[in-house]
Amino acid sequence: MKQIILSLTSLFIILSISSCKEDIVDPPVDNEQEVITTVHLIFTDSASSAVDTFSFMDADGPGGADPTIDSILLNSNSTYFVEAQFLNEQDPNDVEDITEEILEEGADHHICFDGIVNLNVDVSSDPADNNGFPVPVNSTWRTSTSETGSFTLLLKHKEGHSHQDCNEGETDVEVSFNTKID
Amino acid sequence: MRNLILGCLLLLAFPGFSQFTVTGTVVDSATNEALSGASVILHQKHASTNKSGNFTFNEIPEGRAVILVSHVGCSDLSFPLYISSDTHLTLVLSHHIHVFDEVILYAHSDELEPDIRLSQKISSKKIDQIGAILISDALQDVGGVRFLKTGNTIGKPMIHGLHSTRLPVIIGNNTLESQQWGIEHAPEINPFTSGSITVIKGAGSLIYSGSAPAGMLLFETGGFDDSAYSRVLFMGGGSLFHANSGRLGLKLENYNPLTGVGNRLTFTADMNGDVASPNYNLGNTASRQYGASYNLAWSQDFLDLSIDANYFFQSPGILKASHIGNLSDLKRAYESDTPLINREFTFEIDRPFQRIQHGVLHAGMALEMQDSSMLFADYQFQMNHRQEFDVHDEGDEVALQLSLFTHQFHIRYDQHFREHWRQQIGVNMQGQGNIYRGSYFIPNYLRIEAAPYYSLTYEGKKSLIEAALRYDIQQFETFRNENGQTKTDTFNYGDYAAAISGWTIINEDLKLHFSMGTYFKFPEVNELFSDGLHHASAAIEIGNKSLKTERSYVLTVPVLYSHNRWKILIEPYARYFNNYIYLNPTGKSQLSIRGAFPVFEYTQTDVFFRGTDFDIKYHLLSNTLIELSGELIFADDIENNLHIYGIPANKLNLIIGQTRAQFSSLENIRMQLESSYVFEQKRVELQSDFVPPPEGYFIMGLRIDAEQKNIPMSYSLRISNLLNATYRDYLNRYRYFSDEAGRILNFTINYRIK
User: Looking at beta carbons, which residues of chain B come within 8 Å of A2?
Assistant: First the structure.
């Protein structure tokens, strides 16, 4: 009985569904939109021009494998030019640089380095370096004393962001870096 | 049965000619007053009763005829006559004694028991009258049905804390197949275009589904009156104060008894601006709804055929403030007194929003065979297309798109035998394909299901017993692209459901119902395959491919007592679930680029639901009713000794209702003042939620329905949240972000042309 019912049903279904079956059994690659998987902080020492990159990487997005996070190591009493880079590396063959978009839509984005003052680091940025917006994608960091601690990089999104308050807007990135200033 | 009861029929015969005059009087049984404005149809002639309740038909030929009496807001009554002389009819109509019970009908035995919540029906007339185009509007007055809400537009029905795949919705004698697993997905059905709704509890549900431990919602397209007619119904309505909306509906209907062909065409359009709470606008809660349906029926001696097409469109905006990036955003949104992202009132829908379309094509056949048995066959195709538009995208870019195609076939043989017995045997068959685009949430799949069933009913004068057995088999194959390779998983499930239910009349005041049964639920695709961040719930949800079939054991013993002015219903229930599938907070959190998110995993446990609904009515005067009702529900994970998440809080309702036969130029006036108290849900586990449940709240509502004398026009007016209270409800997902809507006045006008 069970066999008869199942085979009758199968026949009926196969006849009717075969038209779109191709689309079902052969799905394309997922298309996650505007996911940021990677943050690079690229530090250039103003004195020596030495370049150091510290990263947060989570290629499979939220869930799945755990992210990898670098600890930041800086020299005291130094000046660094810092460039933040935001990438979508979900598909290694098609890495998307989202930094440009953040700069283009600088009016709707904001970046903060929350807790950085506790490390005695002075961060300043010039809108001229950031497509005319007060969004510190490119900034200058001045370290002073030796410190150990952490700060949180926040990327916020809100139409017409005030660029004053880091609690404002929706969080696109919230990443903490352990930092040692030696 | 509820409105027009033919009390007395007097035939005064005179010898005469081959053409006769038929006269009559329509009187109200409660007041003995003449009823004016009732519509009477005889031999394709139409008459309305005058102020004295009289009607006259001249030149009626000798022979058989059908007389039809109707009234706006009432179900039509027709009965056959043989006219061989001038005739006078006295029709005594019971018009407004049970008006507050008008949503209530008993499935098997209308005349015996019109007033029980075990099988409640909302007629399509009632739906027209209140202009219900959302399932939550149509069912809002039905006791025992609650809603899991995402704002004001998306409402998912819930009975005794059970919903989604545990509460099937039936259309075209098959299950409504849509993306019902999501908490923010409501059933894609428009009551105005889809006909009546019946809430079924008990063994009768096994004809349609084996996973209905709490009951099911059955939609049926209405039949046609048994006489030649054409009718146009206009419905117009809107809302004011904390909501601004307008809606229109049109229903065109005709029937020709000579050819047996009936047609019905319906349209609705509804446009809602942002809803507001008492203190602020709820930015981007505007929405649109459109619906259309066509129903063609043809009936000849032994054969009825019907074709239905139904289209549903809904596009709700998603509250801007509810769009959050991470948990700190959610906490900030919750702690803020006003929504963090907002906008001024507008009718515009911005991102984020959803767009949902559902199309149904149904062909049905009913064949009456010898020995009065019937053969029913239904074929149905359903297409569900859901698109979610994220705040970050632009233009027509879709973040997530799911398309579900379903073919269904249902054959049923229904036989009455040996006077009191009835048996039904049949099979449901279904094939389904799902395709997703955009971000991953569930994989593509193909699913084939078949389910034979058998049901046996004994219907005596003082009792009814119905027993049913059903076996479902399901083959389920999923397809997902992982790194360029298609990964396939196959699942085979098979399980049975069995139920026995019925009632017995113990004495003239006391009626005892019972329903016991065992049901199953196969794991749903999201429960098996979720893997990632669910933005709507700010949690990482992980599916489990080794989930087993869930089994439930159900016992309900409703008791109905009615004596003089009292009518009391108590409906206690107990439902035990073995391997209950649910989303369990693991207590862990996972770090992502947006910070840490709590991890929830689909898992299984043993759960015990129990509680009681009660409803006490007292007729203070013949036209004044006081009704106290309540719902108490408790649900626990008995394996781990924990409370279950998302169970409705206990609720008490007090209704004072009054009816008036006439007032000024109005008649059949019904007024109802409703007060509800919803308790705080204290039976929760704190780690399973981000914030504690909202406090208890008290709200009031007012409802007035009336008909116009002499004109086939009716009015319905509803004021919700009459006191403009500021509150949040545990069952609304927006409770993290905003208060509930403030006072809303909603009105509907119906105008009928016959």
Answer: 471, 473, 494
- Answer with the one of B93, B124, B147 that is the final residue of a domain: B93
Range of the domain at B43: 19-93
Domain boundary pick from B63, B93, B123:
B93
User: Residue B103: its pLDDT value, please?
Assistant: 28
Q: In chain B, pLDDT over 90 holds for what percent of residues?
A: 49
The tens digit of pLDDT for each residue in B491-526 reads 999 999 999 998 898 888 898 989 999 999 999 999
Residue in B with minimal Cα distance to A87: B593
**Cα A85 → chain centroid:** 8
Handedness of CA B211, B214, B220, B223 (dihedral sign): positive
Chain A residue closest to B435 (CA)?
A: A24
Euclidean distance between CA atoms B668 and B710, whole angstroms: 12
Q: Could you tell me if residue B126 is inside a domain?
A: no
Domains: count for chain B: 2
Angstrom distance (rounded) from CA B334 to CA B322: 10
Inter-chain residue contact B325 with A171, CB threshold 8 Å: yes
Q: Are the beta carbons of B548 and B522 closer than 8 angstroms?
A: no
Mean pLDDT of the region A60-81: 88
Show the CA angle centred on residue B140, arms to residues B136 and B146, nearest 5°: 75
Task: Supply B543's token pair.
Answer: 């599916």
Mutate to test the interface with A, among B324, B396, B592 (most CBs of A within 10 A): B592
At B571-593, the pLDDT tens digits run 999 999 999 999 888 878 888 88
- Number of Cβ pairs closer than 8 Å across A and B? 157
- The CA distance from B259 to the nearest CA of chain A, in Å, is 33
Q: Do A31 and B438 touch (CB under 8 A)?
A: yes
CATH number at residue B428: 2.40.170.20
The answer to whether the CB atoms of A171 and B329 lie below 8 A apart is yes
Probe site for chain A from B385, B448, B453, B593 (most A CB atoms < 10 A)? B593
- Whether the CB-CB separation of A108 and A34 falls below 8 Å is answered with no
- Distance CA(B321)–CA(B151), nearest Å, equals 12
Q: How are strands ordered across the β-sheet holding B154-159?
A: B145-150, B154-159, B162-163
Note whether A27 contacts B481, CB cutoff 8 Å.
yes
| Nearest-Cα residue of chain B relative to residue A108 | B392
The 10s digit of each residue's pLDDT in B194-207 is 888 888 888 889 99
**Residues 6 or more apart whose Cβ sits within 8 Å of residue B646:** B148, B161, B731
Q: What is the SS3 assignment for B385-437?
A: EEEEECCCCCCCCCCEEEEEEEEEEEEEEEEEECCCEEEEEEEEEEEEEEEEE
Q: Is the ipTM of this complex over 0.85?
A: no
Tell me if B12 is assigned to some domain.
no
Residue B261 has what pLDDT? 92
Task: Indicate the length of chain A as a whole number.
Answer: 182
Q: How far apart are CA B385 and CA B402, in angstroms?
A: 6
Sign of CA dihedral B658, B661, B665, B670: positive
- pLDDT tens string A43-65: 999 999 999 999 999 887 777 78
Residues B85 and B225 grouped into a single domain: no
The reply to whether B667 falls in a domain is yes
Using one digit for the tens of pLDDT, what is the confidence trace for B646-698?
A: 899 999 999 999 988 888 899 889 999 999 999 999 999 887 788 889 999 99
Q: In this structure, is residue B181 part of a structural domain?
A: no
- Domain harbouring B55, CATH code: 2.60.40.10
Residue B719 has pLDDT above 70, yes or no: yes
Residues B86 and B222 in one domain: no
Q: Are residues B89 and B238 in the same domain?
A: no
B409, B479, B532 ranked by CB distance to A25: nearest: B479
Are B89 and B221 in a shared domain? no
**Contact (Cβ atoms closer than 8 angstroms) between residue B556 and residue B515:** yes
| Calpha distance B556→B159 (Å, rounded) | 13
